[in-house]
Amino acid sequence: MKRGLLLIDRGSKEKEVKDELDYICKKVQQKGNYAFVNYCFLEVVPPFIEEGLANCLKTKVDSLTIVPYFLYPGKKVKIAVTEAAKIQAKTDTKFVVTKPMSMHKTMVDIVNSKIESALQKNNIVLPKNKVDVMVIGHGSKDPNAQISMRYVIDNLSPDYKNVSYCFLEIEEPNISQGIQKCAKDNPEVLVIVFYFLHEGAHVKKDIYQDLNPALEQVNLKQTIITQHIGTDDKMIDFILERAREVENAN
């Protein structure tokens, strides 16, 4: 059977996002032995879902695995799946849709790896139970998004002194509230995790517009920031695992 795979990403104008997706698709195709692996966007910039699916179908694949490349099982995922279903009705190619990139131990492992790398890069030698962590996510109106964030926090908490979270927009606690809460614990070091898949506008500038003023309002001994979580080859294996879950079930 000739099988293809398509990542559906939210979308961004930033060149770094496309570079990261190009890398991911190349590695997934190599490791997964797919005839075709590519990406499209839900919004912001083309290729949009209809064009992305059309490009896949031109390759004459027998089956197409669609991966909603989102960290939260919220509204964006539902829209992506609905758009794909409309096109499924017009073709004989079989579509299977994976779960998003959430509620899985791999995400905990990736965040933990980012924390460890940031500590090492900054020459900080402390046992984990002396380290405070704050995870910054995007925010969503869908309650499942916060459940997904809580999953990561709850699984990190046994290893670190304190683990908390906040959001860039839409829901609370916001970044200022998150920093104020962390400061009350007087941490030796606060590691701030950017819980975002890409180096898009949010990671490059939007977070800092709220984070920098919030940090200026408190007296923290040391603060370090991790890379965003999409820059990890564990994500390649996670995509393939999500794909195998639905491919083997059909």
Element layout with pairings:
Blueprint: E1 3-9, H1 15-32, E2 36-41, H2 49-58, E3 63-68, H3 75-88, E4 94-97, H4 105-121, E5 132-137, H5 143-156, E6 162-167, H6 175-184, E7 190-194, H7 201-216, E8 223-225, H8 234-247
Parallel strand pairs: 1-2, 1-3, 3-4, 5-6, 5-7, 7-8
Helix pairs in contact: 1-8, 4-5, 6-7
The SS-based structural class is alpha/beta
Helix content: 40-55%
User: How many structural units, i.e. domains?
Assistant: 2
H and E order: EHEHEHEHEHEHEHEH
Helix count, per DSSP?
Answer: 8
Q: What is the CATH topology descriptor of the largest domain?
A: Rossmann fold
Low-confidence stretches: none
Strands of the largest sheet, in order across it? 2-1-3-4
Q: Give the class-level CATH name of the largest domain.
A: Alpha Beta
Sheet with the most strands? Answer: 4 strands, parallel
- The radius of gyration computed from the alpha-carbon positions, rounded to a whole number of angstroms, is 19 Å
Mean pLDDT: 94
> Approximately how much beta-strand content do the residues carry?
15-25%
Shape: elongated
Count the strands? 8
- What is the CA–CA distance across the termini? 13 Å
- Annotated CATH architecture of the largest domain: 3-Layer(aba) Sandwich
